[in-house]
Amino acid sequence: MELMDRLSSDMKSAMKNKEKQRLNVIRGLRASMQNEAIKLNKELDESEATAVLNREMKQRKDSLHEFENAGREDLAEQTRFEMNVISEYLPAPLSNEELESIVKETIQEQNASSMKDMGIVMSAVMPKISGKADGSQVNQLVKKHLSS
């Protein structure tokens, strides 16, 4: 898997450059991926690896929100750094226009016309975007188009 290779390569360069924070984040990402591979009892493909990265990013976002609410700027800054490192390995996010066109296209493909069809549309859209957009953003767009 090319993502694991890239993480290994970046880990080596972080060691050479004595980038301790970056090294810790990369090691954590590799460990999460290896744990997922053990759990699934197989080598991760790109979509599974991206799902692990998205899960790690979501955890950081939740933590960042909590740290900011608690006034812990030191921890919030560390979490922002970790999020920046993780984002280097995630696929480029879809623009709002691209996401909106995928949602509209999927609604037409599924012949969805009301909010009752929300689950069908969401289950059809999510594989198409595979980690390139936030699920809550997709959910809002689907609601918007189904309710209008």
UniProtKB/TrEMBL annotation:
Coiled-coil annotated residue ranges, if any: 4-50
Superkingdom of origin organism: Bacteria
GO molecular function: carbon-nitrogen ligase activity, with glutamine as amido-N-donor
Keyword Cytoplasm assigned: no
Transmembrane segments: none
Keyword Magnesium appears in the UniProt entry: no
InterPro entries reported for this sequence: Asn/Gln_tRNA_amidoTrase-B-like, GatB_Yqey_C_2, YqeY/Aim41, YqeY/Aim41_N
Keywords for this protein: Coiled coil
Pfam families documented for this protein: YqeY (PF09424)
UniProt protein name: Aspartyl-tRNA amidotransferase subunit B
Organism the protein comes from: Marinococcus halophilus
Classification of source organism: Bacteria, Bacillati, Bacillota, Bacilli, Bacillales
